[in-house]
Every structure is written in structure tokens, then in C-alpha cells.
Amino acid sequence: MVRFIVRRVLSAILTLFVVATLTFFLMNLIPGGPFNTERATKKVIEAMEKKYGLDKPLFTQYVMYMGRLVRLDLGDSYRRAGFSVNQILGEKFPVSAKLGLIAIALAVGVGVPAGAYAAYRRNRAVDRIIMFVATLGIAVPNFVMGTSLLLFFGVTLGWLPTLGLSSWQHYIMPAAALSFYPTCFIARLMRSTMLDVLGQDYIKTARAKGLPERIVIFKHALRISIVPVVTYLGPLAASVLTGGFVVERIFTIPGMGKFFVESIGNRDYPLIMGATVFLAALLILMNLLVDLMYGVIDPRIKYD
Amino acid sequence: MEKERAAGKAPVKAKNTNLFTFHLSPDLLAPATREEKEYLVQMRESTTYWKDAMRRFRKNKVALLCGCIIVLLLFFAWVGPVLMPYAYDQQVRGEERLAPMLSPYFHPFGTDQLGRDLMVRIMVGTRISLTIGIVSSVIILLIGTTYGAIAGYTGGWVDNAMMRVVEVLYAVPDVLIVILLNISLKEPLQKLFDSGGLRAVSSLGSGLLSIFITFALLYWVSMARIVRGQILVLKSAEYVTAAKALGARNGRIIFRHMVPNSIGTIIVTTMFQVPMAIFTESFLSFIGLGVSAPLASLGSLVNDALNGFQSYPYRLLIPAGFIALIILSMNQLGDGLRDALDPRLRE
């Protein structure tokens, strides 16, 4: 167990290192520097580049950056002078995180029961309807969902506010758009595992012993069926994150997504690096937690 | 057929046979005719793997329907623009902002604010989406299969090292890297094209090409994993041992014996890459990366429509519907192929 954790943590750190390195060199591939604005003279550009150490060879820059990264210092933004990357992330991230968490909760909270119920009522009308919606749902990209919701509930019916996040009603559409795809995915996943589990011998044994159906389903079947959903939490976090890029754009929400795309356009190197490394660390941590959670949920899983 | 046989429609052996007599009629000893011989041979036509798969696939009505939709979409995307009286970037003066169907001019899906016919633009967008889906799946297929096959077949420390690379790439948050890669590749490629390099592929445009490269670099990983798993299973198969004993070289064993025997899984995995790639491309185009104007992809059409969608909702809904239709039918076709080619994978 301890060996497993140590191995997983080491591999997570390695992945993070790869991401940081990849990002650093990819970013420098983008032509044009951060200070090449129309008004800047050559002298100004040189002075700025010297100030931030951009005149040094690329590899030296890389080593310097990694050194700071280890100390969790992501540097200062080039474009928003006076702000450190940590400050900017601290300002934008909570906005996205709140929306993302709501979406994740919604996806799991709706997807799991829907899938489990569909499996329990296999081939009945309920099952057919749930599966029909779920199959359609995994074909609809979240920006299509987001814009359609915006159009229908925001404009045509005028029920929900379309801009920003100032009240709880504002969260309804973005959260729905963000969680629709994962909800459908989880429902399908849940149904197929649950069907598999319900056909297992120990379920028959449990029923034969005369256990109430409630206990058979909730204690014996559901607990094991949830393992693949837990596995999906890692990709789910990633999908909500990227979905955030799109949904924040549609509903004009000032979060991470919008600012990440902008920072690339601005060649704001420390900001690009900082945001990528931060988000990557988040996702890698999420995967790590998921791996460690298996054993808690399914006692049959042994770590090697 | 079977009923006819049971009813005794087979050639009658001898007339007026009396079972209780010892008198043998010479008819009974006559050599059997060809017809009689054929009747005795209980042979069905042997089914091959492909025939069997076809039979299963044909039963699947949903998958067949989706296959037809995809064929129609292919026609729509490649033949359609030829038949339309406009080009995708042609701006017709005086026919701006027309609603679908209502106009006196021929614009079934209406026009945008520059007077470009939306239907042609959607045709071209569908073409780009399908091209990206298919080409990147083929790239993923080639890289993933080769990598997975080599890792699985060689085994030992080589396998270990190769799979460690896969593990790390698998854990890399793909979309962040896709965005970065896409941006950083686009301009250098454009420069390269402008200076006349790589003429063979420059007609694709830097946006499209950078998407291909991005997908090729990142998305072969799951393919490699699946192929490796298959190869590991097949490694202990008897025909592989036989091939080895006969002195076949490794390359031959891998590509003549092992890969063809896992072809079902490989095809199914590739099929599922197509909608994935289309999904990612439309996402990239939507956030303003991907193909560059005046070329249109379905994602960029939705993105363009976002400004002023309150007055022109159809500009947004039509391309959005097309994306959903393509992905839905690709998913269903993939499901159908999986059930047909690789029944073990069935849910």
C-alpha cells in the first residue's frame, strides 16, 4: 500500500514535470514576444526583455523558471504589471472552481441514480427513455448545449439571466450546459456496470439469503458499480475544465477559461505557464486521489 | 429448404421396393448419381469472420441508418459545394442576412452578414469536420498500432519503458496541451508555407495541419494501450509459436499474424476516434483556434453566429445541429461495428 502510494506520487510529479517542460518549450515556439506591441520601440523591448531575463539563452531561462516553480513562485504577469501570477490565479480560479464543482456534483448526482435506475428497470420504458436521452447527450458538444440553452431559456422564454454570475439563477444555465455531457456519460457507464453487477453470483446469493431488495441494491450492487464512475472523476474534472473555457465564453463569466485563452494571445509567458502548470497539477492530483479511493470503495482491489 | 428435405423431395432411390423380399433389384446396386451424392453431403457455405460480422451488422437497424446518414453527409460535404451556385467565401451583395427558405433567392439555410450562403459554408464545414475526424483517426491508427505492437511483442524493459512514456502522456491534461500546440504550430507552419516549403500539404492550410499534428502527437496513446493488450494475449497463441518455429521474422509475425487477428478491436477503436476528433476540432474552432477565415468549420460557424444570435438564431442552430448529427451517427455506427466485429466488447 505504502509502496503503491509512493510510486503513484512519484509518477504524478514526473507527469507534472513533463507538462511544465512541454509547456515551456511550446510556448517559446509561438512567434512574437510578449512586448511586441505597436507602440513599443526596439529599445523598450530590449529593456523589458532584460528585466525579465528573456535575453538569456532559452535553456538558462528554463532552469531559472523550474527553480522558481519548485518554490511555488509562478512569477509576475508581463501584461498586467504589478500583479503576480499567483494573485491573478487566486482571483480567477475560485469563480471557475465554484461553477465546476456545481457541475461535477450535478453530473454525479443525476447520472448515477439515472444509470442505476435504468439498469434496475432494464428494457422497460424508463430505461429506454433514459438511454435515449443519454445517447443523444454524448453527441452534443457543450458549446452547442450552452448556446441552445442560452437561446431558448435566456432569449426566447426570457426565464433566466444570460450574463455573468451575480445570483443563484445565473448558475443554472452554465452549470446545466457544463454538466450535461458528463451526466449522460455517467448514466451510460453506470447502467452498463450495474447490469454486469446485477448478473453476478453474489447478488443471487444475497437475494437467495432473503435480504431485502433495498439492501441488495444499495449495499451490494451500487457500491461496486460506482467504481468506474470514480475512475471517470479524473477525466470528468478535465472535461469540466475545458467545458469551462467554452461555457465561460458563452455566458460571459470572468473565470479561468476566458483568461487562459487571452493570455496565450498576449504571449504572457508566465501567465500561460502558471495557468497550465496549475491546472495540470489540479488534474493530476485529482487522478491521484481517484486511484487512492478505489481501495476504500471496492475492498477486492489490492494495490501491488 | 429443410422442410423440403424432410418431406422427401430428394431423388427417390428405387421404385416399388418391397422391404420384405430377398430379391434384390439391380436398381439398388446401381452407382449413385451425382444428385444423390450431393444430397448426402451436409455442407453449408463456410462463414468467414467478415461474413459473420456483416450478418450481425445488418441486423442492427440503428447502425445501418447511421451508416446511411454518414454516406449522405459525405455526399453533402463533397458533392454539395459543386452543385451550389456560390462558393463558400463568395459574398453576394444585396443578399445579406437572409432568413432560411424565405428569400426569393436560393439560400436554403439563409445567408450571413456578409452575404455568404450558409448552406455552402455548412457543406464546407462538414467536409472539414469529417476530414479531420477521418484523417486524424488514420494517423492515430498508424502510430498507436505500431507503438503498441512493438511494445507488447518485445516485452521486458523495452515494453516497460515504452509504457511509462504512454502513462505520462496519458496523464497529461490533453486540452491544455492541444491549445498550446495548436497555437504554437500554426504560425511557424504558415511561415513555412509562405516561404514555399512542404508544398504537398500546404493546400490544407496551417490551421488544419496543426490540428492533425496535435492529434497525432497526443491521441495515439489509448490506441497503443489497446493494441498492446491484444498483442500480449496473442503472443501465446499457437499459430504464433508455429510461425516462430518456422523462422518467421518478428516484423512478419507482428504485421501478418498478430495485427490481422486483432483487426476487429483496432477498427472499433479507430471508429471511436473519429467522433472524438470531430468533437475536439469543433471545440478548438469554437474558441477561435482551428481553421482560419474565410474557411469555415462547423465549430467556427457556431462561434461566428454567437454575435447576434438573438436576431439570427438559425445561424447558430443549423451548424450546431450538424455537429450533433455527425457525432451521434458516428457514435452509433461505432457501437454497431463494435457489436459486429468484436462481440466480446459488448456491454
Question: By CATH's scheme, which homologous superfamily of one domain in chain A applies?
Answer: MetI-like
Strand content of chain A: under 5%
Query: What is the helix fraction of residues of chain A, given as a range?
Result: over 70%
Level-2 CATH architecture of one domain in chain A: Orthogonal Bundle
* Helical run tally of chain B: 17
* Residue runs with pLDDT of under 50 for 5 or more positions of chain A: none
* Overall spatial form of chain B: flat
Kindly describe this structure.
The complex is a heterodimer of chains A (304) and B (347). Chain A contains 12 helices and no strands. Chain A has 304 residues and is an all-alpha fold. Chain A has a domain at 92-259: MetI-like (MetI-like fold, Orthogonal Bundle). Chain A is flat and about 85 Å long. Chain B is mostly helical and 347 residues long. Chain B has a single domain, classed as MetI-like (MetI-like fold, Orthogonal Bundle). Chain B contains 17 helices and no strands. Chain B has helices at residues 2-6, 26-29, 34-40, 49-59, 61-78, 80-83, 118-154, 156-171, 174-194, 199-202, 206-218, 221-234, 238-245, 250-261, 263-286, 298-305, 313-341. The model of chain B is unreliable at 1-12 (pLDDT under 50). The interface between A and B is large, with 47 and 43 residues.
